[in-house]
Design brief:
This protein is an alpha+beta fold and about 130 residues long. It is about 25% helix and about 40% strand. It is found in: Secreted.
């Protein structure tokens, strides 16, 4: 039986579920860190980018923008960090909504880092489908 390879192509499956590429961009300007997490979705073909503005560890601003693949390809700084399933992306999005309320008035570096880790699929689970 063929075992799916760990390459980053559109035919990469995780326990029978299709996975989608996730990109990240982090840069700092004027004391603020702008962290962007993006997923490439095929239907409809678009890129969904979650933008976090963090100042002194406090999440100051969060918004989501949607771009075409062509618009996204022209953006600098994004790098592929993993592939994830739509169900993991949903968990990420729901967690993000909770954190955005929780972290308006306090430092949330750990919570934000843990939220991004949700997107990484556990390799050890591949054999346990």
């Amino acid at each position: 039986e063929d075992v799916p390879s760990q390459t980053f192509d559109n035919k990469d499956y995780f326990c029978g579920k299709e996975t989608f590429p996730v990109y990240e961009s982090i840069f700092t300007e004027e004391g603020e860190t702008i962290r962007k997490i993006a997923i490439e979705i095929e239907k409809p073909p678009q890129i969904e980018i979650h933008v976090w503005t963090i100042r002194k560890g406090i999440l100051r601003h969060l918004y989501v923008e949607k771009l075409s693949k062509r618009e996204f390809e022209g953006l600098p700084y994004f790098k592929l960090i993993t592939r994830t399933t739509l169900s993991q992306w949903k968990i990420f999005s729901e967690g993000e909504a909770q954190i955005s309320q929780m972290c308006e008035s306090r430092v949330c570096r750990t919570e934000l880092e843990d939220l991004v880790k949700v997107l990484y699929l556990e390799k050890s689970e591949k054999g346990h489908c």
